[in-house]
Amino acid sequence: MTPAPNAPPGFDEAGTLRQQARAAGMDPNYWYAVEEVRRIKPGTVVEVVFWKHSIALFRGKDGTFQAIENRCAHRQLKLSIGDVQGCRLVCAYHGWEYGGEGRPAGVPYDTDGRGFPRLAIKTYPVKVRYGLVWLFPGDPEQAELRRIPDIPELEGPGRWTCVPLRFTWSAHHSMVIDNVSDFTHAHLHRRYRPFDGAKLRNCETVGDNVHLSYDTRVGRGRISGLFVDHKRLDTNRMELCYEYPYQWSNTDDAIKHWLFVLPVDERTTRVFFLFYFKSLKIPFLPVRIPRFAMTAVMKISNRLLIAPLLSQDRFALEAEQQGYEEHWDARPYEFNPVVQSFQEVTVRKWREHLANGSENGDVRV
């Protein structure tokens, strides 16, 4: 397809690192968070999109998840507009039934003894972890070779409290990665002050990971700062990592987060944030909030503090996306070297994926 006049260049036509990063997809041979478990009730189906490829994710009446290519092999209707009967996904048009193996498992009308056609559509491995549903959109044979990130604080009887947040932002995934680890945008968050006074102390690329650290004042907001025990914690330094295709941060082994991105297309990204705290204190008192109350506190915090903070990032990123589409050939000026490091990894990983036999980024095998 020929790009529209003055449209940003595609990956192969891009002439600068930024242009390449803004056109790159993500390697499908990783596990990607696609939805919160609680949002898919048994007996329902939703559409999931990974880099322009539609997937039907459905949950049987028994609570198990299955995922298949989002098209009926008969007339190519999206299966996500059908319904779930038992543990099968049923096409809305002729009632063809599918299980998780991708082959039609039943048809409601007589086939005159000819038997059911030997058809199959692509299936995807599915796992559940940390309250999220994960898909492996690439080569299924590699699914067991890759791991969903291990977050020991969110497992076991002593696990920390975490209430996931998820959003859909109209911005390329590389912009999201640039944003969450580039602390030069403290001005945007001057109302909430999640960090300020940041000074980059380290930035090193090791394989597919970019490790960095800042000296910065963390959690100094007028309200949010009341819940952080600054006397017991060193909240003046933060470690971060772009652990392709994920991102995480760590403040004194007590305040942590992970970001999981789901690339939808060149201008749309779903994001899943996991913020979790070893403990929080009762404002104005040197007393920790009891563990049994932490979930309620986190739900309130997500709604009143964290979600509004992240909405500022959404506002800026969607404006950046629009600005890039209008001025993609403008000379970029970057003062924080971490941005170039992120983009270099993103571009290299996409180029490696394309070189491994998926000529135009098609995730199908």
Overall description:
The protein has 365 residues and is α+β, with helices and mostly antiparallel strands. The protein has 2 domains: 32-142, Rieske Iron-sulfur Protein (3-layer Sandwich); 155-351, Naphthalene 1,2-dioxygenase Alpha Subunit, Chain A, domain 1, CATH 3.90.380.10. Helix content is 19%, strand content 30%. It has 4 helices and 19 strands. The strands form 4 sheets. Strands 12, 13, 14, 15, 16, 17, 18 and 19 form an 8-stranded antiparallel beta sheet that branches. Strands 2-3-4-9 form a 4-stranded antiparallel beta sheet, with no helix packed on it. Strand 10 and strand 11 form a beta hairpin. The longest helix has 36 residues, at 291-326. It starts with 16 loop residues before the first helix and ends in a 10-residue tail after the last helix. Mean pLDDT is 90; it is low at 359-365.
Topology summary:
Layout: H1 17-23, E1 32-36, E2 44-50, E3 53-59, E4 65-69, E5 83-85, E6 88-90, E7 97-98, E8 104-106, E9 123-124, E10 126-129, E11 132-135, E12 161-162, E13 165-169, H2 173-181, E14 195-206, E15 209-218, E16 237-243, E17 246-251, E18 255-265, E19 268-277, H3 291-326, H4 337-355
Tell me, rounded to a whole number, the average pLDDT. 90
Order of helices and strands: HEEEEEEEEEEEEEHEEEEEEHH
CA distance, first residue to last residue: 22 Å
Unreliable stretches covering 5 or more consecutive residues: 359-365
What's the CATH C level of the largest domain?
Answer: Alpha Beta
CATH T-level topology of the largest domain: Naphthalene 1,2-dioxygenase Alpha Subunit, Chain A, domain 1
Number of helices: 4
- CATH architecture of the largest domain, by name, is Alpha-Beta Complex
Which geometry do the CA atoms define?
A: globular
Number of strands: 19
Structural class: alpha+beta
Helical content stands at 10-25%
Radius of gyration, Cα only, in angstroms?
Answer: 22 Å
CATH superfamily of the largest domain: Naphthalene 1,2-dioxygenase Alpha Subunit, Chain A, domain 1
Q: What composes the largest sheet?
A: 8 strands, antiparallel
